[in-house]
Amino acid sequence: MDTLLEVKNLKTYFYTPDKREIPAVDDVSFKVNRGETLCIVGESGCGKSVTSLSIMRLVATPPGKYVSGQILFEGKNLLTMSTKEIRKLRCKEIAMIFQEPMTALNPVHKIGAQIEEALIINERIDKKTASEKTVELLRMVGVPDPARCANSYPHQLSGGMRQRAMIAMAFSCEPKLLLADEPTTALDVTIQAQILDLIQTLKEQHGMTVVFVTHDLGIVADIAQRVIVMYAGRVIEDASCSELFRNPLHPYTRGLLNCIPRIDDDREELDTIEGQVPTPANFPTGCRFHPRCPKAMEICKCIAPQSVDVGNHVVACHLYAEESNNSVE
User: Fold this and answer.
1) What is the CA radius of gyration of the chain?
2) Looking at the structure, do residues 118 and 262 belong to the same domain, yes or no?
3) In terms of domains, do 164 and 213 share one?
């Protein structure tokens, strides 16, 4: 298949004032095919959002730093591009829906002005045309009164309407790649479903590729073609959505799936994953999941597992090291 985005051995670290190294994203690799919806899954603090911000080149440097690796978009390495070149790609080629629209939108500018700015800069159109297109974009994403919304400040809109405005801004220049960083966080279930349907509909209409960051496996089952699972800054499993739900390999992935309540399950208590995600400042040696893993072995405590391909299903776990001679770099 045609690869649109390829992340190779990406390391995005942060540095504290006392020079401590915080490996938020540590040697992450994955590919996204054109027209695909890829979901990045994991608990809070596992590096999902920093990965998506790295693709957009939005990590503040300092305190952040792209230590090594490549982010190839249509074969071009985004990490070696100048600031001017990256700005030309943002919104027009790669767009992002941020996690919390109240903080992502500028509170002192009206919604319409913020969308118009993106259109004027990237489409090189006049203000009147940009204003008309803004109203059309807001109508496209299901805003009931788009003209009123365009003339409103972010605090005057509900969370769902603010998120729709963010989606309109992201779709304004019809990008090839859309990064959605938990766009349904803090929304109620009904609005969440509407936002997901909207993203799917617009994706199909415009033929876009989507990278969707979430911790909600229910969303993953609904929208993803392929899934990567992250833990403590690393990718630990990569498979098609159907394969991952049918046959999860990594103990962490199994734990996540076992935590989901099922309508046909009569258990009185749900399963849990013992312990907490380690902080990036204090990752354990070896496999970073071993302190919480029910299947941990001695080797897990001292040697980090390599990713192996177990029949089109990539997993980083010592349990499968002997099952495949095809080690993934």
Assistant:
1) 21
2) no
3) no
**Strand arrangement, sheet containing 37-41:** 94-97, 177-181, 209-214, 37-41, 226-231, 234-240, 314-316, 307-309
Q: Which token pair is 266?
A: 């009569």
What amino acid is encoded at 233 in this protein? G
**291-316: pLDDT as tens digits:** 999 998 999 999 999 999 988 899 99
Q: How far is it, in rounded angstroms, from Cα 126 to Cα 121?
A: 10
Helix (H, G, I), strand (E, B) or coil at 184: coil
Q: Which amino acid is at 21?
A: E
Q: How far apart are alpha carbons 327 and 114 in whole angstroms? A: 47
231 in Cβ contact with 293 (< 8 Å): no
Residue 132 domain boundaries? 110-174
With residue 32 as reference, give the H or E element that holds it.
strand 21-33
| 63 in a structural domain | yes
Residues 6+ apart with CB under 8 A from 121: 91
Whether 137 maps to a domain, the answer reads yes
Please tell me the pTM assigned to this model. 0.87
Distance CA 141, CA 133 (A): 12
> Which uninterrupted H or E stretch holds 138?
helix 127-140
pLDDT band at 101 (very low <50, low <70, confident <90, very high): low
Show which of 155, 174, 193 is a domain's final residue. 174
Tokens representing residue 326 in the block:
């095809």
